[in-house]
Each structure stands twice: as structure tokens, then as C-alpha cells.
């Protein structure tokens, strides 16, 4: 059931079993799992079915660190959350991303890769991915094309890795029908949580206060509360809920909002391929992104290079990924940028302030650049490819001084806006430099290409070309100790018995892989924990296939709403 909060009675109190704040990938995943187990759930979404300027404005704030875009175009504050602007990249974290590394202070998860592996497997159906297999030879053989070939890696310092592409799954569209039909789920649209109310000791959440931009107010009480509002908003809500604890909830050790991370991305150098390798699509982002020619089992894939775990240990580096980036004719010109925006509009990606007429005029004013870029993108003639560069993303090192705080300015709801200070370390610079150097050496040694690299980054200011990837992570980090984290291994906020956090804000370290599949896996894991925590002493244990699907045979407790029916059924059988 979907409810427009703007039309409910003023001051109404909604009662439910689980209240989930945020209807993005994490929030919708948790709601779907709770629905399968019959648990009454309220899903609170700030926006409606489509983007609107007034709701979008609630994301805006101050930038206090490296130049960084964190609002318009990088997040989507409406039903479906950031899945509305997601590119579809999917690859689990590497097993060693979960490990504590002595050269990376603050590294280490409370559990290892094996803990998440079964949940990663279940995300493939949720995200509409292909087989649960990320082995490069498997995909090369399945695709079977001469222009989709693995490059021989002979030095032993690098490996090639596979990412799968979701269509991408737009959760707001894909799962809207399931939520509408559910007898257990109520989705409140235009419902902005403005405060989390606790008892006098701040040990138990009693309710959340909800406001609409039209001035309507309500509250929600529940047995369990889950914040799934994103890597910036989760921290903002905890910090702003400061009526009982002045520093905010879960912030006894000043960790909320700290360790803000995003994957930095930079290009370098120029690549000149040897004959036979110039048209290989497997490693070039301009060719492999959502390309039906680089696909098998109905799933497009891509490949990236990465240092081996032995190299990371030997050279004390962060994790990284690097690939090729062909530079097309007209790349970066006004006409090319206008053409890209028009394509994004066809894909229904949110572009604040975009107007078709303006871009059509721009393309008409720059016909050669526009046509050249479009032709190169569509047909890929080698004569119109100006250059090939290396592009890399690097794991962000946990850094307490990279953080989200509250600004003095307030939004229309009276909430403090955010102040985001994205800061990177020298280790990230050194990792970029070595990643580029290692690949250049590999390509020369294997006689695939010659590479000219740009000057090293280490010891210099970050270049203007540095950009983030809109992966907002780390601000409510998971840890075994309340002194070092905000949530425990079960994603429960330390010191509060019924408040949980979902999404990438709980990542202690972030690897160099795309976070959505890990967000979904953690959401499935958290949903399972919530189901088990809600059972009553006389709960009936049933096969989890009744909750999760026939491929999951783990027993879980049937939730309280089903207990009366089960008890009546047992009495009928006995008599």
C-alpha cells in the first residue's frame, strides 16, 4: 500500500513492527524480505514517484573539503533512491577487503567475506544479474568473440577482474508492484524523518517524527527502526536527533559522520596498442559499458585490472581498479556534452535544470563535434578515436578528518543542512601512481601496448581532474568496539537496543569495487537478523523457503503475526 503523507490527519501516530527510513536499494530490499515473512513494516520515503525541485533541495549543503559534488545529480531523493541514477556496476568486495591491514589504520570488518557470500549469491536475483560467477576465463569463453579477449598478464603483479552489469535495476519501478500488493507493507511518500525520539537514557527509540514540505506532521512507533537513507543522510539524522544527547545519537565517541569515504577517480597517460589489441572491448569503458557485444547469459560484463593481494601487501597499497578509456572525436566539447545529456534524459536519469531545447541549440551550434562524437560512440571507427588513457579508482583510506557534520543553515523542514568535507590521504595518491605504473609495465612486458604516464601524484596537490564516484560510505562505520564504530556486527547502533543502520554508511573499509551489490547483501543479512530478533518464545520454526524462496533452506522463526494462525492450525491437527 502506498500512502501520500501530505493527505493524512495532522499529528497522527502510525504503529508498526518495523519502521524503515529510506526507500532505496537497502530500504526496499529489507521491506521485501520482511514482507515475505509477514512482518508489518512502514517504509518512509522523502520524495514521491518522480524527482521534484523542493525535495531535491533537502540534500544540498556546504562543501568543506576537496571539491566535491554530493547533491544535485549524485543522489536521487525519491522512491527508489539512488538506484534511479545508478549505472548498474556490480562486483562483490574482494575477500582481503574485509581483513585488518597493518598499513591501513582503521581497516578490518567484524566478519569476513564468507559471512556475506550467501547473501551476495542472493543479490543476483534481486539486482537482475547473471550467474554467481566472476571468474574471467568463464566469461571470456562464454562470450567467445575475438574482440573480447583477455590480455595476457605475465609479471604476476596484476590480475584481471570481472564486474557484471545490472540492467540497471530501478528499484522504485521494479518492485513498486510487489509493495503495492503487500498486505504487510505501507509505503509513506513525501515522508521526511526530522527527528528520532528516544527514552530519557537514549537507550531505546520510541518513535520517529515525520514532516512533509506542505507542513503536515505525523509520527511512527515501532519495535525496530532501520535507517536506510544513504551514506550522508544516515549520519545527518543521527547527528540532528540531539534532544537527549547533545552530540547526537550513537555518537558517544564522536564517530558519527567521520570516516566519510568515496572512491576517487583519475585518468593518466596515453596508450599505444600493438597490432591486434587496439579494438579489444573487454577492458575499455567506452566499449564494455552495458554493451551487448560484451555479454553472456543475458548479462553485460566488463573487466578491470587490479594489483594482486601479494603486491598490495608487499608495497603496502590500498586496493584499486584500472581500465582503458578511449577518447573520442569531440570528447568534452559543448556539443558532445549536450548529446550525452540528451541520452541521459532518454534513460530517465535525473538532471536538475536540464532542458531539451537548450541542448538541441548547443548541438546545432557545434555540428562537427556533435556528429563526430556521436558517430564514434555508435560505430567506433579507429580513425576518430583521438587517444586511449588509463582510468583508475582507488580505495579510500579510513580517515577521521573526512567527515559529514551539521551546518548552521537549515532547510525548509528546519533540519540542519550537511557540511561535507571529503579528504583523501597520501596513501591514495601513492596507490594511484603505483597502479598506473604496474599496468604500464605489464602492457610493455606482454607486448600489448606502450604507455606514456602523466607525472606522479604523490607529493603534489590533487589535480582539478580528480572526481568522486558518488559512493557515499563509512559515516556510521561497523566495528566490534563502540569506541571505534557506530554500529556493531549486526548493524545495530551501539547503546540503542532497537535502532539499526543499513547501506554503505556502515562500511568500515570500501575496497575498490562498486558498493550497490554489497549494500544489497548487507540488507538481506540485516533483514534476516530482524526476522530472528522479532520471534516470540512460542514462535513456530518453518523452512526459510517459505520466507525467502525455494533456494534457501535455512530454518528461521515464523514472525509474531503468523503465530496465531500457526497455533490454531496445530490445535486443529491435534483434534
Can you characterise this structure?
The chain is of the alpha/beta class and 575 residues long. It folds into three domains: 1-129 and 167-262 and 399-423 and 471-534, FAD/NAD(P)-binding domain (3-Layer(bba) Sandwich); 130-165 and 265-395 and 425-461, no CATH class; 541-574, no CATH class. Helix content is 27%, strand content 21%. It is built from 16 helices and 24 strands. The protein has helices spanning 25-36, 53-56, 113-127, 136-143, 171-174, 176-181, 233-240, 285-288, 309-315, 334-346, 356-365, 367-379, 426-445, 516-533, 545-548, 563-574; strands at residues 2-4, 12-15, 18-21, 41-44, 61-63, 89-90, 158-165, 185-189, 192-198, 205-211, 217-221, 224-227, 265-268, 270-273, 295-296, 299-307, 320-328, 385-394, 403-410, 416-421, 449-452, 499-501, 541-543, 555-557. The strands form seven sheets. It has a six-stranded parallel beta sheet, with helices on one face. β10 and β11 form a beta hairpin. It is globular.
Key terms:
globular; disordered C terminus; 575 residues; 24 strands; 6-stranded parallel beta sheet; FAD/NAD(P)-binding domain; 4-stranded mixed beta sheet; single chain; alpha/beta; 16 helices
CATH topology of the largest domain: FAD/NAD(P)-binding domain
Secondary-structure content class: alpha/beta
Query: How does the overall form come out from the CA principal axes?
Result: globular
Number of strands: 24
Number of helical stretches of at least 4 residues: 16
